[in-house]
Structures are given as C-alpha cells and as structure tokens.
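pinned: reference chain
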Amino acid sequence: MKKLLAIALALVLLVALAVPVMADGSKDADTEATVLGGGGSPPIVKCKWETSSEVADSESGDPSHLILGTQIDPIIDEVAMTCQATVYYWAFVTDPQGISNIGEVCVDVFEPKDSTYIWKYKVVLQPIYDGPTPDKAAMKAAINAADRAHLVTYDPAYSLAEIAGANGEIDQSKVRLYRGSAIIEKHQPGGLYHVEAYAFDLQQDMSAKLINCFEYVRTEALVKDFSIIDWGDVVKSSEAVVCGDTDMNTPEQPTLKSTGNCSLDIAVKFSKMYRADGRLMDEVKFDAYLVSDANRVGDILPEVNTGISHPPVGGHVFCPICTPTKAGFSIHVIQAQPGTYTGKVTITGTDNGLPWAGANCSNSNCARGHG
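pinned: its structure tokens
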C-alpha cells in the first residue's frame, strides 16, 4: 500500500512540475511539405543510338560512316529464303534522384507502312558496364566511338562533353549505359525505322521520349523454283502456256519470291531460240505475267518479241515482299521449221521504290542521329 502511494505521489509531482514549462516556454511554428507525384522528377534519356552488333559503332550498311545516322543491312540467305537483321539499341539514362532510382529503360520500334509508321515491338534494355565497380572507361569508349561515327541522337539539353567529358556524368556515376537487341524478321520492309526511347523510375515516373530513326537498307533478292520453262510440243500459230503456283517446291509450275526486304518490279527478257543445227526460230512471240491468289496481277511482257519489259506508266507489275507469287509464261510460234529449239529467259527483280503493303516505305520526316 505504501509503494502504490509513493508512485501516485511521484506522478502528481511530475505533472505539477511540467505545467509551468508548457505554459510559459512553448512557441508555435508552421509546418509544410510538398508531396510530389511518384518519387520526384522523372528519369532523363540523355542520348541514344542503334548498331548492327554489340560493337558501339558497328554499322553494317555504312561501315565507313559516310551517311548520317545508322544504316543496317539485312542478312539474306537465298537457299533458306530468309532475310533478317539483329539491331542493338543503346541509351544513356540518368535520374535526378540518383541512378539507383532508375527502373525500366525501353525502346518502342515502329516499322514503315503507308506514309507513317506502325508499332512493331518493345525492347527492354539492360545496364552494361555496370555493377559494384562500373567500367567507366568502357562507357566513355562506347559513346565516343558512336559519336565519331555520327550515330548518336542527343537530348537537345545535353552533349557529349557533359556525359563523357572530364569530371562528366560518367566520372561522377550520375548516368548509366543501357543496351538491348531484337531481330528484324524476313517479312519486315526496308526503310526508315522510327525508335522511341524512354525510362521509368522506381515510382513509375516516366521520362520524356527521345526519338530518332535508323535505316534498314532496302536490298533486292529474287528467288525462283525452276531452272527451265518447257512448253513441250507446240503447234504453229497457237499458244502454249506454262502456269505457275505458290509452292516453291514445284519447279514445273513456276514461282517467284522476293526474299529481300522490298517488293520487286519484275522484268523478263527472252532470248532468240535456236535448233541444235543453229537454225533460228523464224517468228515467235512471248508473254509473261504474275498472278496473285485472287486475280491476275498484270502482264510483265505483253505480246512483244525479245527485249526487256517495262511496267506501264503509273503502275507496277511486282513481286510482293516475302510472298510466293505465281508466274506464267507463254509462247506463240508464228513461223518455224519443225524441231526442238532452246533459248534463255532472264528474270530481273528491281527495287524501284515500290510500295510495301501498298505504300512507300521511305519516310524522311524523322530526325536522324547527329554527332
């Protein structure tokens, strides 16, 4: 009982002693805090570029770096009928809250179609030359090489010196280098590809986009599944026809395919035909045409003698990109002595700036890399 009383008295005394301090010595002060959306200011993509390999200035379409921006050649295998290229995407990124606050770094890649672009894929980039002891020399070497090759697009507010100069952001560990890659596949057209780079911080604040283009160099490649056009027995003053299909494994039914990254104007040249004894077929006419699955595309060589054909003005007879296309060939013997005659036919595919999927792939309305 005495113990409880002592505790109670002590509490009363403490309260009694505290009252004068609160009454006489307290002062008011305002408080203020501004809560930012997310975690603060968003990241910044300071510069970006593209290459054809993991080497920072590689450019298969322009290895001497004579053209501004990045040019990448396709790798074409006519036997396998494939056409593709691996593209590497690079970006230097910083964050006002520190590079440890950088979350995801990405690029969106758009392929040319009609007079604009369509989204193709997203590539998530990963830090390189990073870790507990970042390889700052390698980061500097990468951007300096790419800058000398005129591949780099910079945010207008930043420069090479600020990033890689003496006591620049690389030296101060204020920036990271990111890289990722993806394949341009066989059905994708040549032309300028639109690339948007952006980054998120750990609070999901998104940076402004940094945009440029690289060129996937338009490259011609035409394959056929036949080595001879055999009209067989032909009666004078009548027409014999060899009709094609869309199967690249039936040589008796001719098929053409553009295995490059552009659609092709097709031209055909028939040579004169001779017997084994050297006698010339006296008078003959040839015809050649392409046929789509639904309808006849158009004459390549409409009822003319030997010579290279040309598409009509304002139109094209073309073999679409990555699409097996039926070809037809006919012969009309007007005058000839009996016998077996042989000759040659030359089929040429030419990229004349043909549309892909109905429109021109090239689009120059995109700012390209600059050094």
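why pinned: The chain has two domains: 44-216, 222-350. DSSP finds three helices and 21 strands in the chain.
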